[in-house]
Amino acid sequence: MQRRHEVEEWLSPLNFFETQSDKLSRRLGGTGRWLLKSSEYQYWSNGRSSKNLWSPGIPGAGKTMLAAIVVDDIQQRFAKSESVGVACMYCDYKDQVAQTTKNLLASLWLQLAASNRDLSYEVEDLYNKYKSQGPRSRPSLDEISRILQTEVERYEKVYFIIDALDECPAENRTTLLRHISALPPTVSLMVTSRLLNSVPRQFQGAIKLEIEADVEDIKNYVKERINSVERLSSWVDNNPSLEEDIVTTVTKNAEKM
Fold first, then answer.
1. Would you tell me how many other CB atoms lie within 10 Å of the CB of residue 78?
2. Which of the four pLDDT bands, split at 50, 70 and 90, describes residue 54?
């Protein structure tokens, strides 16, 4: 296990397992049901479509939470299937030093390989090759892309969910998508992003599902916040109609965005 940990850290310092767990822990019950029930999502996630799913939205629309919900939905749906792989990526402009194209692609490999007891001989060979060259030596982008492809081929179906692609620098974004698009057609990709002019060109022909603030999600969030803030909850206890007034006002303002 120690060697495996060394190899994984050598390939990529990014740990999206923890990121996914942290995002999902903040989910309120029922949030995101509208997306999971949408015809666009159902068509993309049923495993029979080779089209990508692009979900743009304005800042604050809840794209990251919905990405986490999608990851969880796919994981739960295929929890008993060893032939389906799921991996996610949360892009963050504040972490551009660590989120290089190499590290991002390697993180996808790491997540897919997590279910395997042993490292593949391709990865072992790659590690041994560079280990002798010094602790800072790293494989090339093409080499990382090849081990990712090999890992993808071990599955009948693979889902990649990438959140906030727009926060990845344009040059890195183009390279990242080029390598992912070169993977076998068994890969289904979902991407969330802001509505930037440069992103739609990269998803021509993709299924488009625009993310907007959902009324029920907003209501649930506001009610949860009221209950979690002691001063607010005490005011509501003394004036029961106040909660409905707050929820209505916030919801109406959100719909104007």
1. 17
2. very high
Tokens encoding 59: 């800042």
Q: Which fold has domain 2-212?
A: Rossmann fold (3.40.50)
- CA-based radius of gyration for the chain: 21
The mean predicted confidence, pLDDT, of the chain is 85
Are the C-beta atoms of residues 147 and 120 closer than 8 Å to each other? yes
Domain ranges in the chain are: 2-212, 214-257
Bigger pLDDT: 209 or 237? Answer: 209
pLDDT band per the 50, 70, 90 thresholds, residue 67: very high
Q: Report how far residue 154's alpha carbon sits from residue 111's, in angstroms, rounded to the nearest whole number.
A: 13
- What would the two tokens of residue 32 be? 């995101």
Backbone phi and psi for residue 11, each to the nearest 5 degrees, phi listed first: -75, -40
Give me the amino acid identity at 21.
S
Give pTM, 2 decimals.
0.84
Which 8-state DSSP code applies to residue 203? G
Task: Say if residues 207 and 68 touch (Cβ distance below 8 Å).
Answer: no
1 DSSP 8-state letter? -
Other CB atoms within 10 A of residue 190 CB:
25
pLDDT digits (tens, 9 = 90+) for 177-193: 999 999 999 999 999 99
Do you know the residue count of the chain? 257
Q: At residue 81, what are phi and psi to the nearest 5 degrees? A: -105, 120
CB-based contact 71:90 (threshold 8 Å): no
